[in-house]
Specification:
mainly alpha; 0% strand; elongated
Length: 146
């Protein structure tokens, strides 16, 4: 399941009118019946690919429980993909793309968390050895192997 939904993509575009402008008059394979759904899927794939590519060295992707920042980044990246491939991306969008990559690199390096919960802290204070005294203990087998 993609990180960003259709509504997330429209929200990232600003409104439905801008989203429509980004997908209008685009070439799609001839077998595609729903033009809008095709480009939504392409935008979702672009966003997921960026997130997964940067987080894969440290985390198992796709993330099971992504937080809102991952969903937001995936949606913004999907809109950036649509705008950039049409030549409609402004300089601010290029800068935001670079910022998203920097944030993902920080997540990959462990400086930020992508939303997956950390493992529970151990309740054990210190490991300890328990001395066995039965026949299969170290004392019971003393002299057996040498």
């Amino acid at each position: 399941m993609p990180y960003a939904s259709r509504d997330d993509l429209i929200s990232a575009a600003g409104d439905y009118t801008r989203f429509r402008q980004l997908i209008e008059n685009r070439e799609a394979p001839p077998e595609v019946e729903d033009h809008e759904a095709y480009w939504i899927t392409q935008a979702q794939r672009a966003g997921d690919a960026l997130v997964n590519r940067h987080l894969q060295p440290r985390y198992r992707v796709p993330l099971a429980n992504p937080d809102e920042s991952i969903v937001y980044m995936a949606a913004q990246e999907g809109i950036y993909f649509l705008a950039d491939t049409r030549g409609m991306a402004a300089q601010t969008e290029h800068d935001a793309h670079a910022d998203r990559i920097a944030s993902l690199k920080e997540m990959r390096d462990g400086k930020q968390s992508p939303g997956d919960p950390l493992p529970d802290a151990t309740t054990s204070k210190r490991p300890r050895l328990i001395e066995r005294t039965d026949a299969w203990s170290r004392r019971g087998l003393k002299g057996f192997c040498g």
